[in-house]
């Protein structure tokens, strides 16, 4: 019975060490937990750990089989050896393997903290054997290109690992937190092109407007900063900070020359810049608005710090996409053409393709390979998109539904 208990204990220890949550153990070890550090020390050399466990377990199992054989022969004679082998195998499998390993898989921490003490002691008792087994193990592995053994406890977490953990969370109960965490991780993959306000939707002012009209336009704009250009959009003059201008306007001191001197310099961002890189640039250089340009210096759009934060915390910018998205009925939405595809996907929890154009209208135009001529309907990736209205050369409103729903 003692040998069975020894075999069961080391079988359970093997499973427990493999099943333990190494991230949780590592976190507690960094906070000063000695028992967790002891477990990490064992996991750091898996060949040493397994050498102790498997040696003791194998010796115990062989001794159990030998003693069982001697007992059967002395009691029943040699005619029942086959029956003895079958019964011994079943009992050993159940009592020394299946039951302890099942328990250890469900309760790994209860086992490893005790086992780490025993294994450390046995490692010193069996030191020569453990060293020899490690050497033979690594020699054989080297023949198959596996000379380098990484510790089971080595903590190397990739972005995909974190995404996998987030994906295991109950989405309905923790949707906002889940979506925020995904937004942070997406900063590594997204570029400024994915979230920028396109050139056609930029709110800008011409410095050459009559002075009274320029002041009136500034007062009507709701943005804290406004791009100022001279005659042509690609000829930017600077960025007007409305807070500074209001303070000067209230004193009655502003004229066109002073207005120009108060403009902030324009910061240009190359297209394709990763959001993570741009966020770092915003933070280090202490500015909040940049102009995205292509390789020829042509303006493509603008990106603000609020846009990047809004990618993580949906609705942070104060102009959430929900205002421009109407949920008409089950499976049917009506949206503005200039709504970013990513914003629509977030609100609807659908999956319109995001690898190309930024906005819904851009997606329709790319699919048609031309501007729509009136009301048209296209099917894209299993979604039906119907152009409801046009405004000059722009798609103003579209209706989107899944292909298996009828659009009324």
Can you describe what's shown?
By secondary structure, this protein is α+β, with helices and mostly antiparallel strands. The chain has three domains: 142 residues, no CATH class; 121 residues, CBS-domain (Roll), CATH 3.10.580.10; 82 residues, 2-Layer Sandwich (Uridine Diphospho-n-acetylenolpyruvylglucosamine Reductase, domain 3). 53% of the residues lie in helices and 16% in strands. It contains 17 helices and twelve strands. The protein has a five-stranded antiparallel β-sheet with strand order 8-9-12-11-10. Strand 8 and strand 9 form a beta hairpin. Helix 4 crosses helix 7 and helix 5 packs across helix 6. The relative contact order is 0.07. The model has no long low-confidence stretch (mean pLDDT 82).
Brief synopsis:
This protein is of the alpha+beta class and 408 residues long.
Catalogue the unreliable spans. none
Following the backbone from N to C, one meets helices and strands in this order, namely HHHHHHHHHHEEHEEHHEHEEHEEHHEEE
> What's the Cα radius of gyration?
34 Å
Distance between the termini: 76 Å
Q: Helical percent range?
A: 40-55%
Number of beta-strand segments: 12
Q: Tell me the strand order in the biggest sheet.
A: 8-9-12-11-10
* Structural domains: how many: 3
Percent of residues in β-strands? 15-25%
Structural class: alpha+beta
Largest sheet: 5 strands, antiparallel
- The mean pLDDT is 82
* Shape category: elongated
Number of helices: 17
């Amino acid at each position: 019975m003692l040998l069975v208990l020894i075999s069961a204990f080391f079988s359970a220890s093997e499973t427990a060490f493999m099943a333990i949550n190494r991230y949780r153990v590592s976190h507690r070890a960094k906070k000063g937990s000695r028992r967790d550090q002891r477990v990490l020390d064992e996991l750091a050399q898996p060949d040493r750990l397994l050498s102790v466990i498997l040696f003791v377990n194998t010796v115990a199992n062989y001794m159990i089989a030998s003693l069982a054989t001697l007992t059967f022969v002395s009691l029943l004679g040699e005619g029942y050896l086959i029956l003895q082998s079958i019964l011994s195998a079943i009992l050993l499998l159940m009592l020394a393997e299946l039951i302890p390993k099942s328990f250890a898989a469900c309760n790994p921490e209860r086992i490893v903290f005790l086992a780490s003490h025993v294994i450390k002691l046995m490692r010193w008792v069996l030191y020569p054997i453990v060293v020899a087994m490690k050497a033979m193990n690594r020699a054989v592995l080297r023949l198959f290109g596996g000379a380098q053994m990484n510790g089971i406890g080595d903590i190397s977490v990739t972005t995909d690992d974190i995404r996998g953990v987030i994906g295991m969370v109950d989405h309905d109960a923790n949707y906002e937190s889940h979506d925020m965490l995904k937004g942070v991780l997406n900063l590594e993959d997204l570029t400024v092109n994915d979230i920028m306000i396109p050139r056609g939707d930029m709110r800008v002012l011409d410095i050459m407007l009559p002075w009274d009209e320029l002041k009136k336009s500034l007062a009507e704009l709701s943005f804290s900063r406004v791009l100022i250009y001279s005659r042509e959009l690609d000829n930017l003059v600077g960025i007007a900070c409305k807070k500074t201008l209001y303070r000067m306007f209230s004193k009655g001191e502003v004229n066109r020359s002073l207005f120009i001197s108060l403009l902030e310099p324009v910061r240009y961002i190359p297209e394709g810049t990763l959001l993570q890189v741009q966020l770092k640039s915003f933070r280090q250089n202490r500015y909040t608005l940049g102009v995205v340009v292509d390789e020829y210096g042509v303006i493509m759009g603008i990106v603000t710090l609020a846009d990047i934060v809004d990618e993580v915390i949906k609705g942070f910018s104060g102009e959430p996409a929900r205002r421009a998205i109407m949920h008409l009925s089950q499976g049917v939405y009506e949206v503005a053409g200039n709504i970013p595809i990513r914003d629509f996907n977030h609100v609807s929890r659908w999956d319109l393709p995001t690898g190309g154009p930024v906005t819904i209208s851009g997606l329709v135009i790319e699919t048609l390979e031309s501007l729509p001529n009136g009301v048209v309907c296209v099917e894209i990736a299993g979604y039906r998109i119907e152009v409801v209205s046009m405004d000059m050369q722009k798609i103003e409103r579209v209706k989107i539904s899944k292909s298996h729903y009828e659009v009324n």
